[in-house]
Amino acid sequence: MAPPKRSHQMLSYRIHREIDDFISTNHGKCEVNEGVGAKLDDTTLVIPDVMVVCDPSKLDDRYCNGAPDWVIEILSTNRIQDLRVKLGLYQDHGVREYWIVDPVSQKTLVYFFEKSDLPDIYTFDRRNVSFPGVMGWHRDFFIRTVPTLPVQSDLVE
User: Fold this and answer.
1) Which residues, 6 or more positions from 92, have their beta carbon under 8 angstroms from its beta carbon?
2) pLDDT, tens only, 3-30
3) Which phi and psi angles does 139 have, rounded to 5°?
4) β pairing state of 50-53 and 31-34
5) CA-to-CA distance for 109 and 104, rounded, in angstroms?
6) What are phi and psi of 102, to 5 degrees?
7) What is the biggest distance separating any 2 CA atoms in the chain, rounded to whole angstroms?
8) Are 50 and 25 in contact, with CB atoms under 8 Å apart?
9) Of the candidates 96, 114, 101, 92, which has an alpha carbon nearest to the alpha carbon of residue 152?
10) Cα-atom radius of gyration of the chain, to the nearest Å?
11) N or C: which end of the chain has fewer CB within 10 A?
């Protein structure tokens, strides 16, 4: 398997950094990881581009053991994997929120699995910078990273 493109990795890093800065500034209990494996069950291992885990007991030195709370995948060459296969895995295993960021179409599909099986679709549009997260909380800190992406609500205590 070929490594991701540099632009893919830079976007992943920027999203990770923004989330981590937000959690840290607000003294949150969640942890953001990039390129770390998530063992969804005994036979299923995925490596999301970015994941947020709010239960520290799920984390060891190598993996998240169980479903992360929030997963972000950036579309690149293996689009079917993220759009179909991982979508089903994340939904079936209890991921609360799943973002699929598409830099080509400049859209983000946001699945709030606790609310609906259908995604909310957001565009990279600087005119509208705040969208609700899982609990209806609003925040616009992604304006510097990928404009107008919604945020998970419980990143902070």
Assistant:
1) none
2) 777 778 888 888 888 888 878 887 888 8
3) -160, 145
4) antiparallel
5) 13
6) -115, 95
7) 45
8) no
9) 96
10) 14
11) N
Section 80-87 average pLDDT: 86
| pLDDT given for residue 64 in this prediction | 97
DSSP 116-148: -SSPEEEE--TT---EE-TTS-EE-GGGGTSTT
- Give, for 110, the enclosing helix (H) or strand (E): strand 107-112
- Please write down the HEC assignment for all residues of 76-87: CCCHHHHHHHHH
Q: Name residue 23's amino acid.
A: I
For residue 122, give the amino acid letter: Y
Cα 40 to chain center, whole Å?
15
Nearest Cα neighbor of 48 from 83, 72, 18 is 72
| pLDDT tens column, 141-151 | 343 334 333 34
Give, rounded to a whole angstrom, the gap between the first and last alpha carbons of the chain: 39
